[in-house]
Amino acid sequence: MLVLWALLFILALSATGFFLGRQRALSLVNGDQRNLHSMPKYYGSNVALKALVPAALLLVVWSIAQPLYVNYSISSSIPESAVSETSSLGLLMAEVRRVADGLDSTVAQGTISDELARDPNADLNSITEGFKSAGQILTSEITRPMLQAAQSYRSMRRDGRFYMIIAVVALSLLGLIWGIRETQPRFRARNVVENGLKVLLISAASIAILTTIGIVLSLIFNTYEFFTLYPASDFFFGTSWAPSFSGRGGSSDLGILPLLWGTLYISLVALVVAVPIGLFAAIYLSEYAGPQLRAMAKPMLEVLAGIPTIVYGLFALLTVGPLLLAVFGDEGVGIMQAGTAVMTAGLVMGIMLIPFVSSLSDDIINAVPQSMRDGSYALGATQSETIKKVVLPAALPGIVGAILLAASRAIGETMIVVLGAGAAARMSLNPFEAMTTVTAKIVSQLTGDADFSSPEALVAFALGMTLFVITLGLNIIALYIVRKYREQYE
Amino acid sequence: MSTSTNAPATGIRANPDATRRRTIARNNAEKRFRAYGIGAIVIGLFFLAVLGYSIFSSGIPAFSKTVVEIDFTLSEEQYEAAEGQLFKTKAYSQYFIQSLQQRMAGSAENVEFTEEATERLLGKVGSTLREFYRENTDQLGQPVKFSLAASSRVNGYINGRITRDSMTDSRFLMRSDLDLVDVLRGNGIIQNVFDWNFITGADTGVDNPGAAGIGASVIGSFFMMLVVLVLSLPIGVAASIYLEEFAPQNRFTDLIEVNISNLAAVPSIVFGILGLSVFIQFMHLPQSAPLVGGLVLTLMTLPTIIISTRASLKSVPPSIREAALGVGASKTQAVFHHVLPLAMPGILTGTIIGLAQALGETAPLLLIGMVGFVATGYPESFMSGFVEPNSAMPAQIYTWAARADYSFYEKAWGGIIVLLCFLAVMNIAAIILRKRFERRW
Question: Which of A120, A294, A298, B90 is exposed most, by the fewest CB atoms within 10 A?
């Protein structure tokens, strides 16, 4: 809340700065703009930028750094004995934060006086009573070290925020004064503003790099931590997936092979559905169809790509699964036990990928030069012979690229397999059995109130890392092939 | 194509039958090939139709609820008598059943409403009536129109989801109760009405599927989209302007380009992992908050927005820039005063499509805790809408689907219809924008 007010304040200051700078520039030359280096609005913008940007930057950095610092210093001050009572430092810190937040809101509601909330020797019972009457939920009993940690957490947080507001406002004011002092008729305001703008543009573009770094770091750190708790060879070559539910580790089998098998099997089924349909649709639309049919059918197919994956997931779970079960289940062929199976997920994922394959292949087929077709027709080939023997071979690298992109999409798809593929990890050849995938297990290991330091939760990061590497590899190969092929004809 | 090689040089002329056969075979091959193409398109459209049919046929019932509408009069003496008894609500349901029987007296069929059957059909009628009359004692003696919601199973029977053959007797609904429903329906007392609560209401938890609504999660999605819009539009446009107009050809630019094209293809679940470990574990932002969801979706949508923005900047002809530079504008002025306004319709179209994608995205939301949370109410104020735990439409649909209960499946399909309506509106807006303002140079 305070942060918002600080932000509003520096925004207001910056707006004031704009008018002040503009005014000052105009009054210095007695209203005659010709004597200024830049237009008056640039002098204003210069002041506004200087009042806004450094202060906002400080605000953001401080807001991120302060909790980290407070957390670090509090957790190092907690005695060892208190940590061993609850299971881990991370859990204890979560509890401390919860108590601190609880103290804040109970004080705000008036059930606990501010003095009591600050008193390190306060009666634990009266604090607990105050919490209860304010409707705060406590997951465990408040202990003395926990209360004291929460109290120092509170005071550090409060002090930190106080200093942050002062620092931010001071910096904003300094920027304002600096900008106004700079405002002279000979000052090259436009160049300064434009350079500042360019820096902002560059930092916006760098966010893509930061995101990648964030992804890679968060995966690497947690994966490393996982491998210190669980041997890497067992993870990569283990053929059994059976996490224990106690969350204490020890007896869990966390082998990735059954998950990879399920992932690849489902993706294969999806590609077997999507590639022929998508490819033939693309060929027909680009080579045979008249403009009217094309204008109708192409957007209709692309609607399939715009439908959220949760819809496909539900479609798999509630429509396709029961349908397949009726045919292949015990009352029909008798090879399917439940509606969730590799076939269910694969079929629905294939439907999702049809427009993906078709529109990419369509682009690639269209990029094949007309002269090649004309040459083939001139030799007396029929249209289909031309397509089969000339157009498709020429477009093959691009189509392979498109299929690889579709495969990477299939491997990374989550909602369809979470809802449609089942939860049992097994390596079987029967496509009508339930299997599970890497993405489905990431979801199941990380949802719920798992302790993030247990191998059962951390394994999700190792799975994510594997997924990231596989899809990235596929994408890079696919993009390389597509790009290389495009250059050939351009 | 090539003729068969073992034929003599004069083969074509010498053997007209073989030629004809080959021509017929080639023409048939041509027809088959075309048929495959048409077949592929038909299969694709068939899938689309099946998907649409199953969404609407299963989802429409979620928008209706079954109510029993009845005029009911309670005299003052009856009220006094009921309040004097030990089982007060029981007395009220007796009165209700009496009046129901009276209402039925004219009809041909003779049916017996027992107390148990009434409770199975309409829930605890007695306590509803008692609560009403205790608060509105002035209504005593006058006819009051009550509309009582029937149980979700009765709703299923009226909508044809449950039939006499498919159901088994349970404590929720007996086969004999369906006779009562038929009589009520014959008298026009029971009917389907539009369930506004589904659109405006909040989730209810596992026990009460009938009252669950998607409203609270629509609000959650709204706040998330607000975050995505406020962050991704300026950042995306700034990044595209830099890359398209200012960036020199160097390694740093290449690095950014490679990163953007790779991020566009990273599975969405990986963005969920990023959000979990950076925003929740590292920065300690609140779990299940629309703010965190919005931040994650922003990072996910940025590549889409950057790619489409760059395309629309590229489509502005260089002559515009040159003309501006020619009359003395600086490079920045040329871009911001001339190129950007001309590219704006394209940018907005791309942004809306990116937002529509983000709106339907589920997987990252599962990881930042939007699933374990039951969104039982609206946020208290505008600001708390960002940081208070809430659900979002796709996450709510998943939660319902995961509850494995037929009534919740119906809600999930209904939620999908609401979600698809939003997506359709956004996409249509994008198409209109493109059609209306698109310029061909």
Answer: A120
Pair A217, A172 in one domain: no
A267 and A206 in one domain? no
> Looking at the structure, do residues A294 and A412 belong to the same domain, yes or no?
yes
Band (B2; pLDDT cuts 50, 70, 90) = very low
Q: Answer yes or no: are the C-beta atoms of A467 and A439 closer than 8 Å.
A: yes
For residue B370, give the chain A residue with the closest CA: A447
A158 & A307 share domain: no
Other beta carbons less than 10 A from residue A423's beta carbon: 12
Residue A146 has pLDDT above 80, yes or no: no
Mean pLDDT, rounded, of chain A = 86
Instruction: Answer yes or no: are the C-beta atoms of A226 and A459 closer than 8 Å.
Output: yes
- In B246-265, the residues whose Cβ lies within 8 Å of chain A are 246-247, 255-256, 259-263, 265
The nearest alpha carbon in chain A to B275 belongs to A215
**Of B257, B291, B303, B299, which Cα lies nearest the Cα of B274?**
B299
Give a yes or no: residue A116 inside a domain: yes
Cβ <8 Å between B330 and A190: yes
Give the whole-angstrom CA distance, residue B5 versus residue B10.
12
Residues A283, A177 within the same domain: no
pLDDT tens digits for range A91-125: 677 777 777 877 777 777 777 777 777 777 777 77
| Residue A443 domain boundaries | 253-489
Domain ranges of chain B: 11-60, 63-206, 215-437
Reply yes or no on whether the pLDDT at B110 is more than 70.
no
Q: Which of residues 422-451 of A touch B (CB under 8 A)?
A: 439, 442-443, 446-449
The residue among A413, A355, A340, A418 whose CA lies nearest residue B47 is A355
What is the longest distance spanned by two Cα atoms in chain A?
Answer: 98
Assign A138 a pLDDT band (cuts: 50, 70, 90).
Answer: low
pLDDT at B7: 47
Secondary-structure class of domain B215-437 per CATH: mainly alpha
Prediction ipTM score: 0.87
Average pLDDT on B79-86 reads 78
Residue A246 counted as domain residue:
no
Number of folded domains in chain A?
3
Q: Are B427 and A461 a contacting pair at CB < 8 A?
A: no
Cα–Cα dist A428/B210, whole Å: 41
Read off the tokens for A314. Answer: 């539900």
State the burial class of residue B4 (Cβ atoms within 10 Å of its Cβ: 0-12, 13-18, 19+): exposed
- Whether residues B366 and A208 touch (CB distance < 8 A) is answered with no
| Residue range B255-283, pLDDT digits in tens | 888 889 888 889 999 999 999 888 888 88
Q: Do A304 and B47 touch (CB under 8 A)?
A: yes
- Asked if residue A68 and residue A142 are part of one domain, the reply reads yes
